[in-house]
Amino acid sequence: VPGYGDSPPVEMALTAQGRRAFLERVLQELSMQRPVLISPSMSGRFSLPFLLAHGNRLAGFVPIAPVGTKDFTAEQYRAVQTPTLILYGDRDTGLAPQALQNLQHLPKHRVAVLSGAGHACYLDKPEEFHRALLGFLRQLK
């Protein structure tokens, strides 16, 4: 995610509109047609504005305790028709419950909880993570 960790800051990433445009440009440059967007943690600042504006361009969405879910309303989430797998570890007691509370308004969602996993559930329980992810991907059209 630009501007986090050791990555250089990107000026357009300062606003939700800019972050949405940045992600749109990345997908365009990679010539991606209806990808499944997997969004852990800080990447929610990019993925959520994109999902709400262009969810129809995604085949699926997999939020993993993303940040920024409280920045949008239940009505905004209800308008999104993108199939979604809300995935998190049951030991993530900080961000995951808040994300679930907001993301559960997405009408086409499923929830997968990884037992014994924390915030980085894909690192804590990689086999269970991949099993849940592959199960979701198989049911997409």
Write the layout of secondary structure elements.
Layout (H helix, E strand, L loop, with lengths): L15 H14 L6 E5 L3 H11 L5 E5 L9 H5 L5 E6 L5 H9 L5 E6 L6 H4 L1 H13 L3
Parallel strand pairs: 1-2, 2-3, 3-4
Helix pairs in contact: 1-2
Keywords: Cytoplasm
GO cellular component, one term: cytoplasm
Protein name: ABHEA protein
In short, what is this structure?
By secondary structure, the chain is α/β, with parallel strands linked by helices. It contains six helices and four strands, in the order αβαβαβαβαα.
Structure overview:
By secondary structure, the chain is of the alpha/beta class. The protein has a single domain, classed as Alpha/Beta hydrolase fold, catalytic domain (Rossmann fold, 3-Layer(aba) Sandwich), CATH 3.40.50. Helices cover 40% and strands 16% of the residues. The protein contains 6 helices and 4 strands. The chain has helices at residues 16-29, 44-54, 74-78, 95-103, 121-124, 126-138; strands at residues 36-40, 60-64, 84-89, 109-114. Strands 1-2-3-4 form a 4-stranded parallel beta sheet, with helices on both faces. α3 (74-78) links the parallel β2 (60-64) and β3 (84-89). α1 (16-29) packs across α2 (44-54). It is globular, with a radius of gyration of 14 Å. The model has no long low-confidence stretch (mean pLDDT 90).
